[in-house]
Design goal:
Helices cover 33% and strands 15% of the residues. It is of the alpha/beta class. The protein has an 8-stranded parallel β-barrel with strand order 3-4-5-6-9-10-11-12, surrounded by 4 helices. It has a two-stranded antiparallel sheet with strand order 1-2. α1 runs parallel beside α2. Pfam families: Aldo_ket_red.
Length: 325
């Protein structure tokens, strides 16, 4: 196995993050046991960055896969980079640390490498992941403040539960709120957002670079086209003729091209697949380089198309996607 350990970026706190990550989210119709198998395959083929979340409800399986690969000598714990996320029903400051500890216990890990606020909007705290009222509407919590949640995240970093802290699905305004917070101790190391050639996030990327925050991209390959969230008539990114054409030139798949595109922009790419052949395929992005002209061509297919917009939460004042970026 070739050594890809140099393929990391420094974050603003001095820690390093691998430029390509394996996403563990799967829609609920996929058996949860497949999370374990897929994560094992990913580690075996060379992925060192595993992207998980409390919301995905498969931390037990993902943790088991990690433990297996450590036990069989494939990796050491310090070779791996694990990202977890604080779900929106844990936004009360006093719930943040217990939520991390619960995830760590489920994963059988002593620490997370990175912990993110999953979405900036808050839901009613307590039992349910998505608490609903009797009319089938989500129970939003508008009383929480992103800055106090961030302070609770900072305390978890100080306690050694997590090495780095960041955010996900934040817009520019929300990032500025944290960055301008009086007494800020740690700046977010990254903002994980939907990002692919149809939604290239160039303005948000520019803003993040200016503020020394990494952009991490999810739905890098388009989207898994979940029927509840994704418009089934939306165009399929990987069928784009421009990507096919560039792929031919390098004898690479459209998926390879879009992952490589992100890496060359300095964006961390989270790729998702539970198919062993595609997991293997998705990692083959380090033996070629796109030209400046290719990069420009790919920039040119941007159409500000969002696959994941979760309208269910659009009424929340902290819903991030009403702003341009």
């Amino acid at each position: 196995m070739a050594d890809h350990s140099h393929l990391t970026l420094f974050m603003n706190d001095g820690n390093k993050i691998p430029v390509i990550g394996f996403g563990t989210y799967a829609p609920e119709y996929i058996p949860v046991s497949l999370s374990e198998q897929a994560t094992e395959v990913a580690i075996k083929v060379g992925f060192r960055h595993i992207d998980g979340a409390h919301l995905y409800q498969n931390e037990k399986e993902v943790g088991r896969a990690i433990q297996k690969k450590i036990a069989d000598g494939t990796v050491k714990r310090e070779d791996l980079f694990y990202t977890g996320k604080l779900w929106s029903s844990f936004h009360s400051p006093e719930l943040v640390e217990p939520n991390i500890k619960q995830s760590l216990e489920t994963l059988q890990l002593d620490y997370m490498d990175l912990f993110l606020i999953h979405w900036p909007f808050s839901l009613k705290p307590g039992g349910d992941l998505i608490p609903m009222d009797e009319n089938g509407k989500p129970q939003l919590d508008t009383s929480t403040d992103l800055c106090t949640i961030w302070e609770a995240m900072e305390r978890c970093k100080d306690a050694g539960l997590v090495k780095s802290i960041g955010v996900s699905n934040f817009n520019r305004r929300q990032l500025e709120k944290i960055l301008n917070k009086p007494g800020l101790k740690y700046r977010p190391v990254c903002n994980q957002v939907e990002c692919h050639p149809y939604l290239n996030q160039s303005k948000l990327l520019e803003f993040c670079k200016t503020n020394d925050i990494l952009l991490t991209a999810y739905s890098v390959l388009g989207s898994h086209r979940h029927k509840d969230w994704v418009d089934q008539n939306s165009p399929v990114l990987l069928e784009d003729p421009v990507l096919a054409e560039i792929g031919k030139k390098y004898n690479k798949t459209p998926a390879n091209i879009v992952i490589r595109y992100q890496i060359q922009r300095g964006v961390v790419a989270i790729t998702k697949s539970y198919n062993p052949d595609r997991i293997r395929e998705n990692f083959k992005v380090f033996d070629f380089e796109l030209t400046a002209e290719d990069m420009k061509t790919i920039d040119g297919i941007n159409r500000n198309l969002r696959y994941v917009d979760i309208p269910l939460f659009a009424d929340h004042p902290q819903y991030p996607l009403h702003d341009e970026y």
